[in-house]
Amino acid sequence: SHQYELLKHAEATLGSGNLRQAVMLPEGEDLNEWIAVNTVDFFNQINMLYGTITEFCTEASCPVMSAGPRYEYHWADGTNIKKPIKCSAPKYIDYLMTWVQDQLDDETLFPSKIGVPFPKNFMSVAKTILKRLFRVYAHIYHQHFDSVMRLQEEAHLNTSFKHFIFFVQEFNLIDRRELAPLQELIEKLGSKDR
């Protein structure tokens, strides 16, 4: 399929080691399609990364969804939970991953067939998904980086996050204020690549 070809293009350019180049819209490609393919890929990566540390992220160890002492996230999906609720990190991330999966599975939002147009609200949905996925990275870095190091996954986490950040920066998909919990790391990753 076309989406598979786009994913292959992304993987090939990722292999080049130049992540800034890897996130750029391939010539002649549809921006929505490129954002859709990459959003699915980031969802899968983050799901996998978080999956490796779930035993350390428990109701007891993480009673609130946070990214350090200054950032706390409350869950609302606008449908089932309209008013934001305070919940543990594992509960929040479970809500988040389930919600994202539902968005990705919705053919009216993420059409899988070639030629089926993306809806007018696609970009705002994609931005919301990416903003929320960022929060999982922020939680992992702030609360579980020691576990990531013990598991020797920091290179994988850093590469995945760097790819994610370069992508959202390239297309201006997450408001800068939302990135504040990891601003220092983002600047460090960016300066290494100039």
Describe, in plain words, how this protein is organized in 3D.
This is MOB1A kinase. InterPro entries: MOB_kinase_act_fam, MOB_kinase_act_sf. One of its GO terms (molecular function) is kinase activity. Pfam families: Mob1_phocein (PF03637). Keywords: Kinase, Metal-binding, Transferase, Zinc. The protein has 194 residues and is mainly α. The protein has one domain: MOB kinase activator (Butyryl-CoA Dehydrogenase, subunit A, domain 3, Up-down Bundle). Helices cover 58% and strands 2% of the residues. The protein is built from seven helices and two strands, in the order αααββαααα. Strands 1-2 form a two-stranded antiparallel ribbon. The mean pLDDT is 89.
What are the main properties of this structure?
single chain; about 190 residues; mainly alpha; Butyryl-CoA Dehydrogenase, subunit A, domain 3; two-stranded antiparallel sheet; 7 helices; 2 strands; about 60% helix; globular; MOB_kinase_act_sf; kinase; metal-binding; kinase activity; MOB_kinase_act_fam
Unreliable stretches, pLDDT < 50, 5 or more residues?
A: none
Instruction: Just give the CATH class.
Output: Mainly Alpha
Classified in CATH, the superfamily is MOB kinase activator
Domain count, please report it: 1
Q: What structural class do the secondary elements suggest?
A: mainly alpha
For the record, give the distance between the C-alpha atoms at the N and C termini, rounded to a whole number: 34 Å
Rounded to an integer, what's the Rg over CA atoms? Answer: 17 Å
GO molecular function: kinase activity
InterPro entries: MOB_kinase_act_fam (IPR005301), MOB_kinase_act_sf (IPR036703)
Protein name: MOB1A kinase
Pfam family, one: Mob1_phocein
